[in-house]
């Protein structure tokens, strides 16, 4: 397999790495380190080079839209007025390519992708490039969030034949959908050290005309090699690997890459990595009395604290940006993703469970406040993302971060009030600027702002503790806290008048499932019914708008329509593995938070559907897509990396264990063992690439706790025992409310529940393992002692 790729620099476009899960499925900004085009090929093709970068600007509509105007995806609609004769992914495009014997140009991205905006503005709005594409190629646009199966298949090709991958992803295919050239962002024209997109098109056109048979043969060889390389199967293995060994190796690999000063696991760019933090918390729990256990806890808590103090967190409006462009978590790529908010809310809630420090619970509440305000549909669903780019003022070209940055003059004008009692003349604005590191010259270094767009601008990042800021000016800590909060609220109100970033109002079942977990877990940990109600409304939305009762299948997407309505594509986009896995996890979390058994019943039905549609009965584990939905694609993959989102197989392993705990059904435990065995080789080779699956492996090889509360769900003593359980970090458990009814859903699943009784008519807890239960416990303090053992 021959290929050419760019020099070993980070590629332009959203980048996707392998190995250490850095959460890098999304986001590279114009202020990252130098980035070069990535282009890969199964035959000798032009090498891409470094490209210049201009600001994103809105598409200039042409008089006649192309066929994408009929699509629902915000990303496809962004390209509906290009001169390119775009097709959506589908049979019409494939038939045209075969009939006219033309290669397919496949371009994959998403609506809040900074470099996707750039390529659309520079190349796809270009009349000459549009003419080239229309004459010699069949051009297909794909929203990677609508069709993750298409994205994964061709990203596998790009990564296998180059130094990396990213978005926009551009791949040239044979009419039979086999890839032969791939890359990421291309600048429009040649430069001193680069080949532009127009030249690449001309050379591919020439190769197709003169060497088509060679292209087809090489493409077939590449596909065959990728099939062998991507296979995940049990093979001759009978059992999964040792959890103790995988745990130890995963921890050691993380320890070696840990940033002692600022937290996190890379130099730059630095990503939130909830899957890693989850692993470290679990590792701490099972190694509490060891030095490594204490180290794991410290690594996770320190990383979460440094992230929350850094500019990656929006201190004015809450929520987290996609990643930091520097080691210090200071200057972010400003895009905000739903899946980050969902997972980080859980991580900060768990940090509060473990540490008791309200700093972490306040961050979790702030995240959920942001989601409720900015990413929520009035019917209960959750939107996908907010863009990094927006115009500094109305009518101007969008710039990255414009909505979020501040000048000293702006803050001084908004906060001119004198601070009484300070040891020197001081205004509220000066206090806030000192605490959050604002300077007259701006706190964004030129290396992070190569185009000079952010000169004099500042990103808020906590420079001092409240105690140090208070001591600096001789003020009371509570007074400083109040002054800073008041100042941030005034900045928030002022920011409302700025042009807002683009909202991707597409709703994805998978990410909505993650968000149901975020609200359910945080609400349970903090004892806040209001947050649990958001989770309930999210689950109701999924059932009402993203579930087909007749077939029992989930839909992948729906869209915000006019007037608060919900719209669907026609035909519907059916769910992928991650949709089922993440929604099932959300429903299990919601049952434990609300104790409404209807959510557990729906989770079990969805798991049955997931098993029917995606389970590999020969090799073990789950395929990412249905066989019929992916018909024609050269690969049917099993996702084998926990990254920005956990692998759906990793989440499914946990779900299967939990459902076995809720029902006792042996089939789900057997499937879990098969799944873990199928991924054995991947875990052995690079355990740090699958920290969530290593967690599941550990949970499987330990004994799951069944914590049963017998009582009236509305009674105070029942609620006290439930809250006791929620307040403790116990990842390897199921929480069951038994109301004493033998005919109840859970009693039918677990007959031993009907043998458990309330003690002296009081709410009573039992801690069971393998259906062998502890003595009855009625006092929360006694239950806490037992659970801490």
TrEMBL record:
The answer to whether the entry has keyword Zinc-finger is no
Instruction: Fetch the SUPFAM superfamilies from UniProt.
Output: Six-hairpin glycosidases, Thioredoxin-like
Secreted listed as a keyword: yes
- Compositionally skewed regions (Basic and acidic residues) per UniProt: 11-36
Which Gene Ontology cellular component terms are annotated? Answer: extracellular region
What InterPro entries has UniProt attached to this entry? 6-hairpin_glycosidase_sf (IPR008928), 6hp_glycosidase-like_sf (IPR012341), Ssp411 (IPR024705), Ssp411-like_TRX (IPR004879), Thioredoxin-like_sf (IPR036249)
Give the UniProt keywords, A-Z: Developmental protein, Differentiation, Secreted, Spermatogenesis
What processes does the entry annotate via GO biological process terms?
carbohydrate metabolic process; cell differentiation; spermatogenesis
Chain intervals for the UniProt region annotation (Disordered): 1-64
Look up the coiled coil feature and give its residue ranges: none
Q: Which Pfam families match?
A: Thioredox_DsbH
Using the UniProt record, give the first listed, main subcellular location.
secreted
Write out the annotated subcellular location: Secreted
| Residue span, Spermatogenesis-associated protein 20-like TRX domain | 65-226
Described function: May play a role in fertility regulation.
What PANTHER family does this protein's entry cite? SPERMATOGENESIS-ASSOCIATED PROTEIN 20
This protein's name: Spermatogenesis-associated protein 20
- Origin species, per record, is Vulpes vulpes (Red fox)
What's the encoding gene here? SPATA20
């Amino acid at each position: 397999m021959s290929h050419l790729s760019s020099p070993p620099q980070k590629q332009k476009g959203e980048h996707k790495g392998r190995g250490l899960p850095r959460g890098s499925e999304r986001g590279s900004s114009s202020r990252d380190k130098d980035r070069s085009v990535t282009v890969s090929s199964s035959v000798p093709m032009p090498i891409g080079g470094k490209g210049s970068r201009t600001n994103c600007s809105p598409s200039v509509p042409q008089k006649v839209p192309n066929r994408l105007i009929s699509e629902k995806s915000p990303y496809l609609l962004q390209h509906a007025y290009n001169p390119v004769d775009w097709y959506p992914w589908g049979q019409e495009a494939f038939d045209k390519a075969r009939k006219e014997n033309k290669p397919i140009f496949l371009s994959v991205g998403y609506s809040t992708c900074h470099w996707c905006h750039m390529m659309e503005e520079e190349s796809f709005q270009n009349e000459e490039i549009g003419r080239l594409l229309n004459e010699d190629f069949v051009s297909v646009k794909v929203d990677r969030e609508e069709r993750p199966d298409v994205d994964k298949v061709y990203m596998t090709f790009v990564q296998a034949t180059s130094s990396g991958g990213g978005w926009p992803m551009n791949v040239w295919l044979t009419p039979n959908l086999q890839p032969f050239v791939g890359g990421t962002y291309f600048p429009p024209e040649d430069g001193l050290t680069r080949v532009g997109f127009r030249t690449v098109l001309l050379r591919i056109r020439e190769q197709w005309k003169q060497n088509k048979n060679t292209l087809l043969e090489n493409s077939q060889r590449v596909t065959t090699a990728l099939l062998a390389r991507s296979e995940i199967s049990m093979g001759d293995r009978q059992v999964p690997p040792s959890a103790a060994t995988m745990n130890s190796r995963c921890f050691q690999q993380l320890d070696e890459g840990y940033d002692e000063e600022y937290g996190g696991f890379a130099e730059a760019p630095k990503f939130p990595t909830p899957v890693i933090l989850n692993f470290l918390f679990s590792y701490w729990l099972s190694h509490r009395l060891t030095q490594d256990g204490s180290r794991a806890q410290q690594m996770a808590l320190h990383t979460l604290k440094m992230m929350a103090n850094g500019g990656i967190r929006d201190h004015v409006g809450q929520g987290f940006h996609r990643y930091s462009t520097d080691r210090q978590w200071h200057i972010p790529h400003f895009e905000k993703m739903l899946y980050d908010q969902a997972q980080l809310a859980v991580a900060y809630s768990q940090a509060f469970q473990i540490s008791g420090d309200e700093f972490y619970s306040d961050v979790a509440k702030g995240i959920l406040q942001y989601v409720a305000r900015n990413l929520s549909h009035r019917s209960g669903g959750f939107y996908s993302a907010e863009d990094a780019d927006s115009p500094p003022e109305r009518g101007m070209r969008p710039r990255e971060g414009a909505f979020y940055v501040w000048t000293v003059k702006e803050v001084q004008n908004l906060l001119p009030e004198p601070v009484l009692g300070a040891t020197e003349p001081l205004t509220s604005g000066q206090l806030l600027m000192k605490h959050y590191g604002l300077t007259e010259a701006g706190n964004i270094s030129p290396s992070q702002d190569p185009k000079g767009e952010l000169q004099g601008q500042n990103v808020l990042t906590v420079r001092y503790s409240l105690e140090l800021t208070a001591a600096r000016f001789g003020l009371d800590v509570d007074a400083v806290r109040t002054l800073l909060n008041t100042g941030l609220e005034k900045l928030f109100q002022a920011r409302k008048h700025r042009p807002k970033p683009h909202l991707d109002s597409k709703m994805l079942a998978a990410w909505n499932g993650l968000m149901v977990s975020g609200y359910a877990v945080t609400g349970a940990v903090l004892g806040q019914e209001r947050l649990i109600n958001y989770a309930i409304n999210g689950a109701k939305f999924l059932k009402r708008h993203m579930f087909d009762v007749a077939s029992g299948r989930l839909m992948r997407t729906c869209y915000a329509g006019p007037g608060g309505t919900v719209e669907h594509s026609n035909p519907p986009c059916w769910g992928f593995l991650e949709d089922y896995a993440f929604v099932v996890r959300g429903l299990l979390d919601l049952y434990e938070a609300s104790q409404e058994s209807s959510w557990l019943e729906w989770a079990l039905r969805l798991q049955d559907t997931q098993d029917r549609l995606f389970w590999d009965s020969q090799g073990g584990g789950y395929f990412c897509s249905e066989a019929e939905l992916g018909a024609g694609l050269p690969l049917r993959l099993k996702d084998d990396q926990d990254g920005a989102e956990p692998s759906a197989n990793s989440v499914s392993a946990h779900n299967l264990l939990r459902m076995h705990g809720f029902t006792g059904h042996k089939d789900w435990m057997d499937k879990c063992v098969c799944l873990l065995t199928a991924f054995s080789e991947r875990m052995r080779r690079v355990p740090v690439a699958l920290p969530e699956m290593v967690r599941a492996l550990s949970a499987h090889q330990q004994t799951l706790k069944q914590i049963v509360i017998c009582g009236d769900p509305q009674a105070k003593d029942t609620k006290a025992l439930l809250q006791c359980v929620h307040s403790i970090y116990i990842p390897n458990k199921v929480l069951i409310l038994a109301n004493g009814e033998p005919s109840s859903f859970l009693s039918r699943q677990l007959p031993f529940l009907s043998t458990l009784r309330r003690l002296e008519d009081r709410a009573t807890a039992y801690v069971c393992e393998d259906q062998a239960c502890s003595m009855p416990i009625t006092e929360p303090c006694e239950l806490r002692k037992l659970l801490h053992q």
